[in-house]
Specification:
Blueprint: H1 11-27, H2 29-43, H3 56-59, H4 66-77, E1 95-103, H5 112-126, E2 129-132, E3 135-138, H6 139-142, E4 145-146, E5 149-150, H7 154-164, H8 168-171, E6 177-178, E7 187-188, E8 193-194, E9 197-198, E10 205-207, E11 210-217, H9 222-240, E12 249-255, H10 258-288, E13 292-295, E14 298-301, H11 308-331, H12 343-363, H13 371-402
Antiparallel strand pairs: 1-11, 1-12, 2-3, 4-5, 6-7, 8-11, 9-10, 13-14
């Protein structure tokens, strides 16, 4: 006896369920139009709570990452406050502005004019002011204190003055460690100068390609943290606009909010493209559902078989779903991150795909049958595919949500 195996166990029950649901919708369409719009309007109020979360350390590291525990050990045992800052031996990731300075002509930064402009740059940073909540602040209000004064890159200051004053023959600055007769401890210059060329015999510095300077900032209180953020952003914008007094030097910067700012820039670049994509998708969906026919020698639109309103409603339904989902998530306190901005592209693609499945099933029905029967038959065939694609997509998102990586 031959046994016929049927592995499509869900096809018939899901198809019948979609068939019964489609008949109810076809007989009583008003509630299924009005209620989703009202529900979307209610959930859309969650958009008023929209705040984009951009903490890179939290988003792009596993929740149980070992480095978080190890960092906490260092934080608890050493330098727990801003008052315990010690340059060169600091183990915490603090707020800070870091700059690499090179010569505009790719030459040595230790030449007289370049060294003088480097000193002007240091003074420019240390004397810069910014405004926060209507009050003017400066670097000295948020700088970390070392030996009862603001940390001012003393090694870089010291070296630049030597070359400005022409005292390099007297001091004979060596690299990577400089042993001065004025200090008992050797000075490590590897974190101050880069691209260094030395005399092979004496290790005395001849030229250097770059300076590295850092301005680490206070962050112990919410106000100090906000002030440091404002200082970093303001100085970064000024450097980007080339407001530095350095015509002979190139200044490159990095600060503790650089990653977050780049994520913000990426989000700003995506938003206009999303609007354009949405317009293109609507246009494609509408034109893709239009059927042409020849009437004599003229090609006209067959409005009987064309379904542009179905395409438009399919896109609108997808848009309502996106607004509702985001609004509900914000009401529940779920963080909104830049990565979520790609979600509308995925959802719209899925929605348009399902819409075309339904349209194809509709066109395969008997044209002479009543409308309700045609809707019922179309959804019985297309509903299975729509349900399966939606279920697998939801499952993939759920698996992603279970991952220990918050982003």
């Amino acid at each position: 006896m031959r046994i016929n195996w049927n592995w499509a166990l869900l096809e018939k029950p899901v198809g019948n369920l979609c068939k019964r649901y489609a008949r109810i919708v076809a007989q009583y369409p008003a509630p299924f139009i009005i209620l989703p719009i009202l529900l979307t309007a209610a959930l859309a109020t969650g958009l008023t709570k929209l705040t984009i979360f951009r903490n890179v350390d939290y988003l792009f590291a596993p929740l149980d990452a070992r480095w978080k525990y190890e960092e906490e050990v260092f934080h608890n045992l050493w330098a727990r406050t801003d008052d315990q800052f010690y340059p060169g031996k600091d183990v915490l990731r603090r707020k800070g502005l870091h700059m690499i300075v090179t010569a505009a002509d790719d030459g040595s930064v230790l030449r007289l004019e370049q060294a003088q402009q480097f000193m002007d740059l240091l003074a420019w940073v240390e004397n810069s002011t910014f405004v926060y909540n209507g009050t003017e602040y400066g670097y000295h209000d948020i700088c970390l204190i070392f030996q009862n004064q603001c940390y001012v890159n003393s090694h870089a200051n010291f070296l630049a003055r030597i070359f400005i004053n022409g005292d390099q023959d007297e001091f004979k600055v060596t690299y990577p460690q400089f042993r001065s007769t004025f200090q008992s401890d050797a000075i490590d210059l590897t974190m101050t100068l880069g691209g260094v060329e030395t005399d092979p015999k004496t290790e005395v510095i001849k030229t250097a390609k770059a300076w590295l300077i850092s301005y680490q900032l206070k962050q112990q209180t919410p106000l100090l943290n906000a002030l440091s953020n404002t200082f970093e952003t303001t100085m970064g914008q000024r450097i980007w606009r080339k407001e530095t007094p350095t015509s002979l030097l190139n200044v490159y910067f990095f600060h503790s909010n650089t990653f977050e700012e780049e994520l913000d820039e990426g989000n700003k670049r995506i938003t206009p493209r999303f609007i354009l994509t949405f317009i293109v998708v609507i246009s494609f969906s509408i034109f893709g559902t239009i059927t042409l026919k020849r009437k004599g020698s003229v090609v006209v639109i067959d409005w009987v078989t064309s379904k542009p309103y179905l395409a438009w409603s399919g896109v609108m339904a997808t848009l309502l779903a996106i607004i509702s989902a985001v609004g509900l998530g914000l009401h529940l306190g779920i963080l909104f991150i830049d990565m979520v901005t790609v979600m509308p592209f995925l959802i719209i693609s899925i929605g348009i795909d399902d819409m075309f499945l339904i349209l194809a099933a509709w066109r395969s029905t008997d044209r002479e049958a009543p409308v309700i029967d045609r809707i019922e038959t179309a959804m019985q065939h297309a509903g299975v595919s729509v349900t399966m694609t939606s279920a697998t997509d939801a499952l993939s998102f759920f698996i992603g949500a279970m991952a220990p990586l918050p982003a």
